[in-house]
Amino acid sequence: MNSDKHFKVVSISAFCTVHDFADSRRLGEAILKAIEKYDGTVAVFASGSLSHRFIDDQRAEEGMNSYTREFDHQMDERVVKLWREGKFKEFCTMLPEYADYCYGEGNMHDTVMLLGMLGWDKYDGKVEFITDLFRQLRYRPGKRCFPAACVRGVYAALYC
């Protein structure tokens, strides 16, 4: 990927299981400030989020194509609805508990950083879903893209 060095890539690895959301939000805000100083086109990709609880080994076969818990499924459906409707004030309010109760990958810090960059609970863009929420393998539950043209020309995507 990018073997011809056509694209300049800065990778930020942030499996932040012991960090505070406020820190990740500030990092997102700082990334936006750095991007604004750059004279060029920028795309930001974040990966992860939604519920991410893997099924216990003893039940692995029965749960390969289903949610581990119905609670997680219902919460993911609610989050998808909020994102589609651009209701990020509501989502940001519930995010700490959602990440905790639904075992968000990396405690959902990728989402916090991206939303910090987009304006946190002031962001009102509607999320474009490329696929529907699906259960298969409980990994990558629904690809989606945050259209972010409203953020001073920065394109952003949260890929799951």
UniProtKB/TrEMBL annotation:
SUPFAM superfamilies: LigB-like. One of its GO terms (molecular function) is ferrous iron binding. Residues 1-135 form the Extradiol ring-cleavage dioxygenase class III enzyme subunit B domain. InterPro entries: Xdiol_dOase_suB. This is 3,4-dihydroxyphenylacetate 2,3-dioxygenase. Keywords: Dioxygenase, Oxidoreductase. The keyword Oxidoreductase applies. Its EC number is 1.13.11.15. The keyword Oxidoreductase applies. It holds the Pfam family LigB.
